[in-house]
Structures are given as C-alpha cells and as structure tokens.
Write a structure and sequence with these properties.
mainly alpha, 4 helices, 0% strand
C-alpha cells in the first residue's frame, strides 16, 4: 500500500500496524475511530436508538426472531457484491 497524499509517515506506519491486526481487532478499531469523529449527540436520537436496541433484544430473547451467524451474513454479502 502506498502512502496516501497528506498522510504522514507516522500515520502510514499506524495504518500498516492496524492492517496487521485480526479482522475482529480491525473492526473494533475502525468502530472506535469512527465514533471519535461524531462528537455531537442528539438526546432524542440517542433515546430512540436505545428503545430500538431494547426492542430488538427482546425479539431475539423471546424467540420472535432468529439471528444469522456472522459467517453466513459475510458470505451472502460477498455473493451480492460479486453479482453486480
């Protein structure tokens, strides 16, 4: 991977280290980095998401909906991407 314009050597080195992490570690790191960019919190939106999370959790725990294994989701996503 070449250095992206405006990317310092230090940033490039960090990127290389991050890319060497496991898939789960990269996902966690990416999520944390994205979260750090969004510093504004709308209390109404936050409350709505909390309610949605609780609703979905209740549906899973009650058996109303079934979860799909992550590997299956990844496989379906890759298939859809390659069909286009």
């Amino acid at each position: 991977m070449s250095i992206i314009p405006d990317m310092t050597q230090e940033t490039h080195d960090l990127l290389q280290k991050a890319l060497a992490l496991s898939e789960n570690e990269r996902a966690e790191l990416a999520g944390n980095l994205l979260s750090s960019l969004d510093t504004t919190v709308d209390p109404d939106v936050d409350a709505a998401w909390q309610l949605e999370v609780m609703r979905r959790l209740d549906e899973v725990q009650s058996g109303k909906v079934e979860t799909i294994p992550w590997e299956e989701v990844q496989q379906k996503g890759r298939k859809l991407l390659h069909e286009k």
